[in-house]
Amino acid sequence: MQEKYWLKKCIFFLLFICTNTAFDAFAPEHVHGKPAERQAWAVDQVKKAAVVSNRLGLTTSVSFTGSLAFPYLYPWPQRPDGLIEEAFAELGRRWVPILNEYRDNGVTIGYEIHPGEDLHDGVTFERFLEATGNHKRVNILYDPSHFVLQQLDYITYIDHYHEFIKSFHVKDSEFKPNGKKGAFGGYGDWIDRAGRYRSPGDGQIDFKSIFTKLTEYGCDVWAVMEWECCIKSPQQGAAEGAPFIASHIIDVTEVAFDDFVGGERDDAQIKRMLGL
What we know:
Layout: H1 2-23, H2 35-55, E1 60-63, H3 83-104, E2 108-112, H4 122-131, E3 138-142, H5 144-148, H6 154-161, E4 165-170, E5 172-175, E6 195-198, H7 207-216, E7 223-225, H8 234-248, H9 267-274
Helix pairs in contact: 3-4, 6-7
């Protein structure tokens, strides 16, 4: 038992070290290999984004939450009781001061719901929302490509969370599992994975239904192309993506298709039709 415990601790320690090393690439060199200093630098940058957004007249910014719990996504080895709860509590403690900065600058944050981050679906978004005391600046950057790779229903997701959607990434993806690989991908590069990102229109996402659903709920947000295709060049993707998005934007009708046979209310007619 002691040997198993020691092995488990070593695996988690190595995972922590490797993850921190990989994220050094996102930060300046003077904080490389210094997780606490890198975190302080990142917090300062995110707070400054609130100020800059305000000065630019923007009301929404976007971000990730970070990944305290994600390394323990798969519940084996068995997780100790309270691990996930404490991870989200800590996320709340870290983010509330930042969210207050955004509140004071009149800006909201759309968190990208993204595998690799602690917020990767609806359940985790609700956990985070609760951990921040239902902070009014907590919102969603909606990107359906990440849901296809999880096999999550990206259409009914809008039904559940449309009031929180403040940003929208128009990025396509596809999921084609076979007898050798599935959602975890077999450690393959993007082009070799069962789930991979594509340029808009080249994958499996039903954008007509998405744009319709967002329009029905009155989601007045930017539809922004995000290119991450593993096959098509970014130049071609951009050239095709802009008109693709434009062709899906819905000009909301102000009339019913059969208004020509309608008329003003006539109470006498209504009574005659009802036999009253």
